[in-house]
Amino acid sequence: MLTDIEIARSAKLKKIDLIANELDIPEEYYNLYGKNIAKVSHKYLNELDFKNDGNLVMVTAITPTPAGEGKTTTSISLSMALNKIHKRSIVTLREPSLGPVMGIKGGAAGGGYSQVLPMEDINLHFTGDIHAVSSTHNLVSAVLDDYIKYDKCDIDSAEVSWPRTMDMNDRALRQIIVALGGKKNGYPREDGFIITAASEIMAILCLTENLEDLKKKLSNIVVARNKNREPVTVKDLEIAGALSVLLKDAINPNLVQTIENTPAFVHGGPFANIAHGTNSILATKLALKLSDFVVTETGFGSDLGGEKFYDFVAPTFGLKPSVTVLVATIRALKYHGGQNLKDLNTPNLESLEKGLPNLQVHVENLKKYNIPVVVSLNKFYSDTDDEINMVKDYCNKLGVEVSVNEGFEKGSDGAIDLAEKVVKVSEQSSELKSIYDFEDPLEVKIDKLAKNIYRAAEVEYSSQALSSIKFLKKYGYENLPVIVAKTQYSISDDPKKLGFPKDYTFTIRDFELSAGAGFIVALAGDILRMPGLSKVPNAVNMDIDKEGNISGLS
């Protein structure tokens, strides 16, 4: 089979203005970024108030493993298949971060015959949105240190909670000292970098509905405490306007297309293990007005991106999901059952049977939200009929539809059965039921998540976490929704607990406030907001020839 990039280059793309015209987007509401990319004005959403929303399909997955699950590939193939069965569909995805592209993934635009294109541009810089977020974030950092030097806003330099950011994996920058070299450079203090996808600015960009809303959310960001231990906000720094200027183009969703010319919005890129993990609300809302079925992907497993979408994003913005698609692979299930990573292509019914409880916990969790679930089993060449039938039988016992998806090899043709089942279950009457209420006390929210989703017996708080709770309650932030930052490799707070862990103690070590984005981050376990590169990063495989052809990007 051809590589992803070879398949992408063989595709026959339409000019993006034709895609926009097929969606009935007037020319005055989009700007071209070359022949195959356009930015659609967020203002166009106001012109579509009279239209009903289409069906919203949320794609999530079982607990991720090194074997991969293929959520993006599934989302793209499903959307293409829906179009093939004459249901107007748009897929909405997050923008890839350069950190994982140069680190492990090598790309995040789908795979095989289910890709969004042009994949080289989408994976590398794209329309500059992520760079705009980085510059906006770092302007706050620069102004903070300037104000500390000139003793403005009475900022306590030991209580600065705003780090710096860059869109690259670099473990050496996690903890640093800034302002060395004498008084002319400011006052030395501890600082650090986070990856741009972890920035609150990125979360705000994806949760904003217009420029006025953007400016308001930016103003509410808490960046430090003053010497009276009161919160210092961006509003106090008087730079919300400047930050909004830097994001004036980034706010507009990016329109591209799939390998089969299905429209796709690729916009925003927060990670789901440290933020809310889905594309921009503007892209989703715009797609809902322009199509019958919107397929949107959430990051990592259903205990991360899926939970946050149903407990935070959907209730906050009044979204009404119709279907949940849960992605699984036999290889990943065998890994959860204890099979060695190197042997996953070897048939093993025993390991598969032991790993199936991980599928079970995700199905059970998702059913609690009262939205119909369809399991998409992504097929690999090594999967045997016996293994496939075992998963099908298990899904039948769990009471959920299951479809074998071959979108990677066959594009839309490999996902027709999945599309038909999604349409079928979307006709069921359902209404989202979230796990907690925003008005619940902070500890109650976490307790409900820990016991209902993470399957813990109890929650334990460190002394630092208890101190942070007092601060959050004192300044009126307690009723904000909770985003739990935890490992993606387990439904628990311990990456070593594979499969279906339960009846353990879930530990919250601290909290971080994202008042601008509108949530509290609960830090569970040893979660990093600045990843590191692997021993052999994907960057060593990448090259470009004299004609400008890129290799090593997948």
UniProtKB/TrEMBL annotation:
<dbReference type="Pfam" id="PF01268">
    <property type="entry name" value="FTHFS"/>
</dbReference>
<keyword id="KW-0547">Nucleotide-binding</keyword>
<protein>
    <recommendedName>
        <fullName>Formate--tetrahydrofolate ligase</fullName>
        <ecNumber>6.3.4.3</ecNumber>
    </recommendedName>
</protein>
<dbReference type="GO" id="GO:0005524">
    <property type="term" value="F:ATP binding"/>
</dbReference>
<dbReference type="InterPro" id="IPR000559">
    <property type="entry name" value="Formate_THF_ligase"/>
</dbReference>
<keyword id="KW-0554">One-carbon metabolism</keyword>
<dbReference type="InterPro" id="IPR027417">
    <property type="entry name" value="P-loop_NTPase"/>
</dbReference>
<comment type="similarity">
    <text>Belongs to the formate--tetrahydrofolate ligase family.</text>
</comment>
<feature type="binding site">
    <location>
        <begin position="65"/>
        <end position="72"/>
    </location>
    <ligand>
        <name>ATP</name>
    </ligand>
</feature>
<keyword id="KW-0067">ATP-binding</keyword>
<comment type="pathway">
    <text>One-carbon metabolism; tetrahydrofolate interconversion.</text>
</comment>
<dbReference type="InterPro" id="IPR020628">
    <property type="entry name" value="Formate_THF_ligase_CS"/>
</dbReference>
<keyword id="KW-0436">Ligase</keyword>
<dbReference type="GO" id="GO:0004329">
    <property type="term" value="F:formate-tetrahydrofolate ligase activity"/>
</dbReference>
<dbReference type="GO" id="GO:0035999">
    <property type="term" value="P:tetrahydrofolate interconversion"/>
</dbReference>
